[in-house]
Amino acid sequence: MEIKEPLKLGDKIDIEIMPTEGQYKATTVDGNDFIEKFSIESAEKIVENWKKDGSKDILCDIDHSSIDTNNTSAAGWVSNLYVDHEAKRLKGTLQVSEKGAELLNGLEFRYLSPVLFFTDDNYPYYLDSVSLTNTPRLQELKPVYNSKEKEDALIVVNQEEINADEDETVNNNEEQKLMEELKEILGLPAEATDEDIKASVKEIVEKLKAIADEEIADEAEEAVNECGIEADKKEEVINCYKQNPSLVKSVLNCFKKQPTNMVCNAQEATKPELTDNEKLKREYKSLLGGKDKVDFLLSHPEIQL
Residue 54 and residue 57: Cα distance in Å, rounded? Predict the structure, then answer.
């Protein structure tokens, strides 16, 4: 970090926090060897989590005093986290305190190092704080404070949180794919909204319900006519039929008129010609499943049921 002019309380300077590629040897606070891994994705995850926390200013202490001695005296505060793809760095803005300005102006400290949360596969996930230091682990970079594990400090990220984020992403992708397929089935344009889909489905359901009501009404009237029900009773019986078709149908069968004459089919007899709409209606009524009927209606919007 090069200081060209003396800093004063509240001044802001751009800082490099960590690299976005490469692997580096390090040592944990308890003396274990550790390999840090850096990537664009991990840097972007740090920025994402910082924003989820409300983009709060991040503490910059002195020689990691907030970790080692619980001294949270601030040399400054870090904000404006972002990934510089060209420089391959995670960067931010450091606003110095009076103490921080004094230490930097006097060249008592020259380097910054971040305290990072690490995933189980050694990628940084969360930025806890940064610190002024003269003993960085990574000399060629703005060094990282290498703490994979430490008592009373959350340095290793909970893998369950990562898995939950991944599961949520998968679920969102599957839901998006399902909605695209639904638009295609309904004949809606790609830019159709969720409300457009709901309206289209509602329209089809209402149309199917109206068709079903009409079909049951026709069936009820036909059954009543076959049984010779008196005119003043027909409406009442038809209404009962609509409520419980199977029960009323079985009762009506007991009163069904039997044919008194044989029907002779003359060889020269011809079948009456059906209109196009009557043909479509017959074909529609021969379908079994609800999906088949929906597809048929979408394919023949001209049908009059």
Answer: 9
- The average pLDDT across 260-287 equals 65
Q: What is the pLDDT of residues 143-185, one digit of tens each?
A: 333 333 333 333 334 444 545 555 666 667 788 888 888 888 8
C-alpha distances (whole Å) from 89 to each of 23, 86, 224, 275 are 14, 8, 83, 74
> Domain residues of the chain, as ranges?
12-157, 193-262, 273-305
Contacts 24+ apart (CB under 8 A), 242-245: 242/213, 242/216, 242/217, 245/216, 245/219, 245/220
- 107-116 tens-digit pLDDT: 888 888 888 8
d(CA 93, CA 13): 6
* Burial letters 71-98, b for 16+ CB under 10 A, else e: eeebbbbbeebebeeeeebbbbbbbbbe
Give the separation between CA 51 and CA 128, rounded to whole angstroms: 13
